[in-house]
Design goal:
Blueprint (H helix, E strand, L loop, with lengths): L9 H7 L13 H12 L10 E6 L2 H8 L12 E8 L14 H18 L2 E3 L7 H8 L4 E11 L14 H4 L4
Antiparallel strand pairs: 1-2, 2-4, 3-4
Length: 176
């Protein structure tokens, strides 16, 4: 397997990706959207159920609607949004305790989305603290539950960005 010339090393990509909270007005290209969504399509899921659906909100009407669900000035600067939905009945369930893995599977796919966007030089931010009832009313799809909204776009030069604070490995890794 060979690496694409313009692709980043994974650790570099993981280091560079951050929660973008200011975007330019430039639209995300179809080529970038196609690349990002292909990476999402390739994300692993339990028993390959792929219990998800992604609504790409690019029209003025759809963007105006999603902006009603999360009232933050920075959020309105994004040129597009991805509404990430979990299939509530189509996910794998662990037999031992009945734990449904839909949120886990969707989380994997969404982070593929965020890293693929970063690989294309675009910014993203996980938004989960939105008005759930408004999202359900405006974007209801039977059998699916909204889990996250991901604004996607070109990062503004003056986008606020602080150094990532992460725990030391010794705090999160234990060898037995």
């Amino acid at each position: 397997m060979t690496q694409k010339e313009n692709s980043m090393e994974f650790k570099e990509l993981s280091t560079l990706r951050f929660s973008t909270r200011k975007f330019t007005e430039e639209r995300v290209s179809k080529a970038d959207i196609d690349y990002i969504m292909e990476c999402v399509r390739l994300a692993p899921s339990a028993c390959n159920k792929q219990p998800w659906k992604f609504l790409l909100l690019t029209s003025d009407e759809a963007k105006a609607s999603i902006r009603k669900c999360y009232d933050r000035p920075w959020f309105t600067t994004a040129p597009m949004y991805v509404l990430c939905l979990k299939n509530t009945k189509g996910c794998w369930v662990r037999q031992g305790d009945g734990k449904a893995h839909g949120d886990i599977d969707l989380g994997i796919a969404v982070e593929h989305l965020c890293l693929a966007a970063a690989d294309r030089g675009l910014g993203t931010c996980w938004v989960c603290n939105y008005d759930v009832s408004a999202v359900n009313q405006l974007f209801h799809i039977e059998g699916f539950e909204a889990v996250a909204i991901i604004p996607v776009g070109h990062i503004a030069e003056d986008c606020p960005h602080t150094e990532k604070k992460r725990k030391e490995l010794a705090e999160i890794v234990e060898v037995r």
